[in-house]
Write a structure and sequence with these properties.
Number of domains: 2
Order of helices and strands: EEEEEEEEHHHHHHHHH
CATH architecture of the largest domain: Sandwich
Low-confidence stretches: 1-5
Structural class: alpha+beta
Distance between the termini: 39 Å
Largest sheet: 8 strands, antiparallel
CATH class of the largest domain: Mainly Beta
Strand content: 15-25%
Number of helices: 9
Radius of gyration: 19 Å
């Protein structure tokens, strides 16, 4: 089994950490604002997860993709690309999978950009794993990477089949109004479809139920608030994000993130 183990010299700036495992090679980067990574290509496929800040990914001269925190970018082999780091700086994790055919579930052959509550929560969990800085970091990263690439595989299927406009509009509304008390009946009425068609179509297309999507989105927003709004109480964050009380929020947060809200806030302190 062989992995791509050589880091191009032009990528070396900002390299914080490297983890080699049987399934993946992981490279953690932290680039300063305004930095530009010159044009280069990788010999094998890769997946790039933005962990914080933002950067523009330039595919040759044809296309530019802005990657904010939680964006997963699947890069096919030999794609020529460069990166421009936003003024906020950028924190990212590159995942090079093993080419072993036994790891078929992590095969990356097409370009794809995925930005969903699942990928954004995965970014938060990756940041937490990297902060732990112990002998279990590689285990955590491997597990999260397989989850991310399973999400990417589902997105390949969804993109190939297309998403009805009405279903995309429902998803966009849930993304923006995650703290509201939406009912299936109200959402179906606005989309002019039956409740059963909406429920089945949403799960088939996005891989989660409507309730799961909203719960993931609430946890994602709450984690951001815990990290960025340190003067706000946990209770206020819970209520702002649509949870009934602090107890309900704490249980949901721990199920999703594997850590309590207070522990997460302490772990992300400066």
């Amino acid at each position: 089994m062989t992995l791509q183990t050589t880091v191009p010299a032009r990528m070396g700036v900002g390299l914080k950490r490297r983890e080699d495992t049987p399934s993946f090679t992981f490279l953690e980067f932290a680039h300063p604002g305004g930095h530009r990574v010159p044009s280069h290509r990788h010999t094998g496929p890769a997946a790039v997860l933005s962990l914080g800040g933002a950067f523009d990914w330039h595919e040759g001269r044809r296309r530019t993709t802005t990657c904010a925190s939680g964006t997963l970018l699947v890069v096919p082999p030999a794609e020529q690309h460069s990166e421009t780091i936003h003024e906020t700086g950028a924190h990212s994790l590159i995942m090079w999978p093993s080419p072993d055919p036994e790891d078929a579930e992590v095969s990356l052959v097409d370009r794809l950009v995925v930005d969903t509550p699942r990928t954004r929560i995965a970014a938060l969990r990756c940041r937490q794993a990297l902060r732990n800085n112990d002998d279990l970091v590689a285990v955590d990263l491997n597990s999260l990477s397989h989850e991310l690439l399973a999400t990417a595989a589902n997105e390949f299927v969804r993109a190939a089949s297309g998403t009805p406009r009405w279903l995309g509009q429902v998803r966009d509304r849930l993304h923006d109004e995650f703290a509201e008390r939406h009912t299936l009946a109200d959402l179906a009425r606005e989309a002019s479809v039956s409740r059963s068609r909406l429920a089945a179509g949403f799960r088939r297309t996005f891989g989660v139920t409507i309730g799961e999507y909203m719960r993931q989105r609430r946890i994602e927003r709450a984690a951001e608030a815990l990290e960025q709004q340190r003067q706000q109480s946990v209770l206020d964050i819970a209520l702002d994000c649509g949870f009934y009380d602090q107890s309900h929020f704490g249980a949901a947060f721990r199920r999703q993130m594997g850590i309590t809200p207070l522990a997460y806030r302490r772990a992300t302190r400066g």
